[in-house]
Amino acid sequence: MKQNKYDDSDFFAQYSGMPRSIGGLNAAGEWQELRAMLPDLQGKRVLDLGCGFGWHCRYAREQDASSVIGVDLSENMLEKAKEMTDDPEITYIRLAIEDIEFQAEQFDVVISSLALHYVERFDLLCQKVYTYLAPGGTFVLSVEHPVFTSLASQDWIYGTDGERLHWPVDDYHHEGLRETRFLGNDVIKYHRNVATHMNALIDAGFTITKVSEPGPSKEMLEKVPGMQDELRRPIFLMFSAVKK
Ligand SMILES: C[S@@+](CC[C@H](N)C(=O)[O-])C[C@H]1O[C@@H](n2cnc3c(N)ncnc32)[C@H](O)[C@@H]1O
User: Fold this and answer.
1) Domain range holding 210?
2) Whole-model pTM?
3) How far is CA 112 from CA 52, 159, 219, in A?
């Protein structure tokens, strides 16, 4: 099932108001960690899956990538991406990630930031990405952490005074569809455990070179109210994987 939630006007308005949608990569808590996991992009042919507003596409070109293709299902997201992009070497394609068809070895780097928890078959996607990467190519991805996606509620358990008691994890090994609430809307995501992510990459032929579960930076802890709670459970899971 290919859900296109970002073309729902209410959801899109909510998403557009998030700090990361306004401030870009530097307002995204996990960006410093993801950036460190990227290979040198100079002269590289880059594919960004679920590119949204195109922040990572433009970053790749700032790092002298030779060309970038951004894929996203949402017309709204791509319209904004195009508005913010003035670069003939960046191409945006409206397409479901599940439906991508490229040539074998067409890319040197494939990036996907916080989009693949919307895709039902991560294993099939890894196989496709492996085919589309040239030997030595890198796949760098982030998803919502399985500790975060295991329960559809995606929320803390609160005490009688509204205090955050703890983050619930349940049904961890019951993988599959979750009808979650995100930004006040019903949103379908797919929960997979950590091993399933890793084994899908390994089975596709990748060598996993880095795994990360980033917490907030020291700077964010100091500046952003409520950030201390982000030390209590992981929210992002990231991999860097190389085609041998
Ligand atoms: C949380 S946003 C992340 C956007 C961008 N990668 C970033 O990090 O700023 C998720 C994006 O994935 C896109 N998306 C979700 N499911 C998709 C699918 N099945 N195929 C293509 N794009 C999808 C959404 O439209 C949205 O733009």
Assistant:
1) 5-15+42-146+193-243
2) 0.96
3) 10, 36, 25
